[in-house]
């Protein structure tokens, strides 16, 4: 009989894990707290390392149909517009890594994963908020009993906590784990491209860096919409909620001294959301017998290398690979953590160190920018070397 899995959380990590496990023959049931499967109204960058998995999960064609393919990743000075980086994306990155780099609206990515999961026979229960779990013994077999906030209970052979940064599964596994405000907030919003002058936003991943802030813009939905993420340093986050409706006037004020291409773009933004960015120190435990964490539940990271969802997608494939071998579930999950820990910790650290670079903080930022300048002048591809270890990894080949 097929082994049963409960996945707590139907976000990008949960749906990818459900699909990967379903492909290996597990019976998969997603418990999602929301009353509808959805995502925030913003864009996401999917790099080749994530796309390798999405190709194997059989969803790449549907994603490509809704995506935008950026030509370059650029990094420019907030005031002068000086370009420190022009890393080729488009066809060149696809040829290099055998998978594309694309920009997509989160709701589109989520809908594609969700439809594929339903089609593959994954059961999804909405309004099901996981509270905690406990192990139960059935002869020589250890099972997991999952309890919801409304008192319902489910039993399964394996529980996956894909319930995001405030994971209840993590709280149950590691009651002393904590989160901290990283000192950054992010405004997110989208604009219809037809409302903006045609050449204002280049067909690239456009990063502008400046004192204590940075801004990223790129196209999604085949260039129909422009996604904007504006990050600013803040001392504290006083709201109990993790995101609140943003004030576009406040956002424009924060970037008013920036390059005219930035200020003009922001002048077209009508609504936005403001997010407090939270994090945790690397957790050394992601696995408790036949319970494991994936994605933001075990390795939240600053979005400054655009890899949080990509790492969750890689986790999904790796976990399904190990638990479908002949070894028992606990050993398989331990091997999953062993394979993933070093990589995600390295990416988490890179995201953190990019905060200083992007916000021109300190001498090390000046030195790195000088080095980028030299590499960019010599050969733009050289400047992509520090990030190559992320894009070159193909978890489906290991
Ligand atoms: C501004 C910003 C920009 C970003 N840009 C990128 C990018 O370009 N590329 C990239 O790869 N990553 C990016 N990220 C990171 C990425 O969004 C996250 O890493 C990713 O969404 C994590 O996915 P997840 O499935 O682990 O968690 P989540 O997306 O948080 O999903 C968790 C799911 O679990 C549900 N849930 C929560 N608690 C419970 C419970 N108790 N019971 C049942 N269900 C529950 C939630 O409702 C949700 O559906 C960005 C992040 C931010 C903030």
Report on the structure:
The strands form 4 sheets. An 8-stranded mixed sheet has the order 5-4-13-14-15-12-17-16. The protein has a 6-stranded mixed sheet with strand order 7-2-1-11-19-18. The protein has a 3-stranded antiparallel sheet with strand order 8-9-10. With 398 residues, the protein is α/β, with parallel strands linked by helices. The chain contains 12 helices and 19 strands. It is globular. It has a domain at 4-39 and 107-179 and 281-356: FAD/NAD(P)-binding domain (3-Layer(bba) Sandwich), CATH 3.50.50.60. Helix 1 runs parallel beside helix 5 (106-119) and helix 9 runs antiparallel to helix 10 (329-358). The chain has helices spanning 12-23, 48-56, 60-66, 90-97, 106-119, 168-173, 248-254, 260-267, 308-323, 329-358, 362-378, 385-391, and strands at residues 4-8, 27-31, 43-46, 72-77, 83-88, 102-105, 123-125, 130-138, 141-148, 153-156, 158-161, 180-192, 205-210, 213-220, 225-233, 243-245, 273-279, 287-288, 291-293. 35% of the residues lie in helices and 27% in strands. A hairpin with a 2-residue loop joins strand 18 and strand 19. The structure holds flavin-adenine dinucleotide. Residues 8-14, 31-34, 44-45, 129-130, 162-164, 168, 186, 188, 229, 275, 295-297, 303, 306-310, 312 line the site of flavin-adenine dinucleotide.
């Amino acid at each position: 009989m097929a082994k049963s899995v409960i996945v707590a959380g139907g976000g990008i990590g949960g749906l990818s894990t459900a699909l990967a496990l379903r492909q290996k023959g597990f019976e998969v049931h997603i418990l999602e707290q929301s009353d509808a499967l959805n995502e925030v109204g913003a864009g996401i960058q999917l790099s080749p390392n994530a796309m390798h998995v999405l190709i194997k999960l059989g969803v790449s064609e549907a994603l490509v149909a809704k995506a935008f393919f950026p030509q370059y990743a650029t990094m420019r000075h907030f005031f002068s517009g000086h370009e420190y980086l022009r890393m080729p994306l488009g066809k060149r990155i696809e040829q290099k890594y055998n998978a594309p780099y694309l920009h997509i609206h989160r709701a589109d990515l989520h809908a594609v994963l969700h439809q594929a999961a339903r089609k593959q026979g994954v059961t999804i229960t909405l309004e099901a908020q996981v509270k905690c779990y406990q192990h139960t013994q059935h002869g020589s077999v250890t099972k997991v009993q999952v309890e919801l906030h409304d008192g319902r209970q489910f039993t399964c052979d394996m529980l996956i906590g894909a319930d995001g940064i405030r994971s209840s599964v993590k709280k149950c596994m590691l009651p002393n784990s904590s989160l901290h405000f990283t000192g950054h907030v992010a405004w997110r919003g989208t604009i219809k491209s037809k409302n903006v002058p045609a050449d204002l936003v280049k067909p690239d991943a456009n990063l502008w860096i400046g004192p204590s802030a940075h801004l990223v813009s790129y196209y999604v939905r085949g260039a129909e919409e422009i996604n904007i993420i504006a990050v600013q340093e803040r001392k504290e986050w006083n709201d109990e909620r993790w995101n609140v409706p943003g004030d576009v006037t406040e956002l424009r004020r924060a970037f008013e001294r920036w390059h005219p291409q930035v200020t003009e773009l922001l002048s077209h933004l009508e609504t936005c959301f403001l997010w407090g960015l939270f994090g945790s120190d690397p957790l050394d435990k992601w696995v408790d017998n036949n319970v494991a964490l994936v994605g933001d539940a075990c390795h939240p990271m600053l979005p400054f290398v655009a890899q949080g969802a990509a790492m969750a997608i890689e986790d999904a494939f790796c976990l399904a690979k190990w638990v479908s071998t002949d070894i028992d579930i606990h050993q398989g999950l331990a091997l999953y953590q062993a394979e993933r820990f070093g990589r995600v910790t390295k990416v988490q650290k890179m995201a953190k160190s990019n905060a200083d670079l992007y916000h021109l903080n300190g001498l090390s930022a000046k030195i790195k920018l000088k080095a980028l300048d030299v590499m960019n002048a010599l050969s733009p591809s050289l400047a992509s070397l520090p990030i190559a270890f992320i894009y070159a990894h193909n978890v489906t080949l290991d």
